[in-house]
């Protein structure tokens, strides 16, 4: 673990998180930043937008504000009160050790995750949680990732994503990539794929025959 940035300017930190960070960072913040527009809790919320799997630790003299970490839903890893130097130092080291262990475990399982860094955010999703990806009709070059319990919008193309996903995913149409493990049924005549959450994806006539063969082979390989 190495120090990436030390600053008293929250906007500089946000710029780094958005454009220079690699995701899953460890952020030590004060609640009172003495900034005209952002306090530590506001900053934590914005960090969550760009690094949803990052680790946030507050170090502050304001013990009375600890409950606000729940109100702001920032999922703070720790809330350290600056009352004793040795205790603060030990808590910081404990946080660093815990993060190193957790990140290390995730890196060992990197093949199970779809990870993509865009200008807006770092996306880090379990492949098994992804149902399908589709284009956004109202905006050019925008993708919607449909997960089990949420949708994530980001900049990209279906063509560009097709080769970055693992073997369970198939581009069924110029506007869709589906997780073939999450299919409920396929209407080959109508060109419609129904996913396990009952959402429907398109299957082009050009891909229909190849897709049927792909599904058959995948079932045989899994048996």
Automatic annotation (TrEMBL):
It comes from Listeria rocourtiae. One of its GO terms (molecular function) is DNA binding. Keywords: Activator, Cytoplasm, Phosphoprotein, Two-component regulatory system. Residues 1-97 form the Response regulatory domain. Required for high-level post-exponential phase expression of a series of secreted proteins. The modification 4-aspartylphosphate is found at residue 30. This is LytTR family two component transcriptional regulator. It comes from the Bacteria. Residues 114-217 form the HTH LytTR-type domain. The keyword Cytoplasm applies. The keyword S-adenosyl-L-methionine does not apply. Gene3D superfamilies: 3.40.50.2300, LytTr DNA-binding domain. PROSITE patterns: HTH_LYTTR (PS50930), RESPONSE_REGULATORY (PS50110). InterPro entries: CheY-like_superfamily, LytR-like, LytTR_DNA-bd_dom, Sig_transdc_resp-reg_receiver.
């Amino acid at each position: 673990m190495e120090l990436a940035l030390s600053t008293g300017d929250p906007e500089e930190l946000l710029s780094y998180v958005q454009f220079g960070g690699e995701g899953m960072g460890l952020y030590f913040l004060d609640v009172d930043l003495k900034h005209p527009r952002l306090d530590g809790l506001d900053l934590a919320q914005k960090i969550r937008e760009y690094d949803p799997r990052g680790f946030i630790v507050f170090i502050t003299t304001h013990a009375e504000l600890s409950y606000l970490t729940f109100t702001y839903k920032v999922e703070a890893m720790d809330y350290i009160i600056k009352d004793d130097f040795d205790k603060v130092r030990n808590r910081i080291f404990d946080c660093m050790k815990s993060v190193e262990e957790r990140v290390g475990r995730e890196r060992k399982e990197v093949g199970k995750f779809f990870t993509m860094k865009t200008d807006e955010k770092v996306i880090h999703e379990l492949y098994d949680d992804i149902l399908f990806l589709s284009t956004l009709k109202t905006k050019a070059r925008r993708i919607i990732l449909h997960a089990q319990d949420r949708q994530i919008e980001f900049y990209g193309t279906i063509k560009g994503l097709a080769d970055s996903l693992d073997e369970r995913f198939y581009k069924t149409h110029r506007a869709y990539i589906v997780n073939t493990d999450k299919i409920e049924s396929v209407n080959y005549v109508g060109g419609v794929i129904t996913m396990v959450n009952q959402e429907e994806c398109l299957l082009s006539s050009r891909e229909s025959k190849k897709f049927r063969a792909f599904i058959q082979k995948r079932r045989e390989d899994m048996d």
